[in-house]
């Protein structure tokens, strides 16, 4: 936090990343301590990544979320993180990577994650499915718009001006 307050975000992020991975090797012989440490890693890492996201620091938030997603294979841990990763990729204008994150949520849910998930996690799955569908729609709409734009550009100038003139002479339906 001191690094962050002094404007050294990169140093702050590096320190957090070191903390997230440093203690794992030391704790493998002590299951209780390892469990406690894993909880702390997930909680602190998620809070820091969420704060970075809220501040608009998407690249650094993404780096932390990507590190966090592997801390636990549990769907109730991974699904919200993958959803957040998808949102960040959308903000970074990388819809293909966003779609991959959303597809991973829906694919993992359908291949075994359906069992006894909380209503909140089921909602995350539904939101991921909706965002995935929306990205596909936006892609198709963009391709259609590009095709229409290309077709319009190929029309000769005379026909465009004639069309414009006929529109101006159309009666108004009031």
In round numbers, the mean pLDDT is 79
Estimated radius of gyration: 24 Å
Measured distance between first and last alpha carbons = 64 Å
Number of DSSP helices? 8
Largest sheet: none
Query: What is the H/E order?
Result: HHHHHHHH
User: Into which percent range does the helicity of residues fall?
Assistant: over 70%
User: Which regions contain 5 or more consecutive residues with pLDDT less than 50?
Assistant: 155-174
- Total strands: the figure is 0
Q: What is the beta-strand fraction?
A: under 5%
Overall structural class, as computed from helix and strand content, comes to mainly alpha
| Rough outline | flat
Topology (elements, then pairings):
Blueprint: H1 2-5, H2 9-22, H3 31-54, H4 58-68, H5 75-91, H6 95-113, H7 119-154, H8 157-168
Helix pairs in contact: 2-3, 2-4, 3-4, 4-5, 5-6, 5-7, 6-7
Defining traits:
174 residues, mainly alpha, 8 helices, 79% helix, flat
Structure explained in plain terms:
- The relative contact order is 0.07.
- Helices cover 79% and strands 0% of the residues.
- It has 8 helices and no strands.
- The protein is mainly α.
- Residues 155-174 have low confidence and may be disordered.
- Helix 2 packs antiparallel against helix 3 (31-54), helix 3 runs antiparallel to helix 4 and helix 5 (75-91) runs antiparallel to helix 6 (95-113).
- It has helices at 2-5, 9-22, 31-54, 58-68, 75-91, 95-113, 119-154, 157-168.
In short:
The protein is mainly alpha-helical. It is 79% helix and 0% strand.
């Amino acid at each position: 936090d001191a690094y962050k307050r002094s404007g050294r975000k990169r140093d702050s992020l590096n320190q957090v990343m070191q903390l997230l991975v440093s203690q794992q090797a030391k704790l493998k012989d002590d299951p209780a301590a390892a469990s406690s440490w894993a909880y702390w890693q997930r909680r602190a890492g998620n809070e820091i990544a969420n704060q970075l996201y809220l501040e608009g620091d998407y690249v650094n938030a993404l780096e932390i979320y990507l590190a966090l997603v592997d801390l636990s294979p549990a769907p109730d841990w991974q699904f919200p993180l993958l959803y957040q990763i998808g949102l960040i990729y959308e903000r970074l204008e990388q819809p293909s990577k966003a779609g991959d994150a959303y597809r991973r949520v829906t694919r993992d849910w359908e291949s075994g994650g359906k069992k006894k998930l909380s209503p909140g996690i089921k909602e995350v799955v539904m939101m991921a499915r909706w965002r995935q569908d929306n990205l596909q729609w936006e892609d198709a709409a963009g391709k259609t718009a590009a095709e229409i734009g290309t077709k319009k550009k190929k029309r000769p100038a005379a026909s465009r001006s004639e069309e414009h003139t006929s529109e101006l002479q159309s009666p108004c339906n009031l």
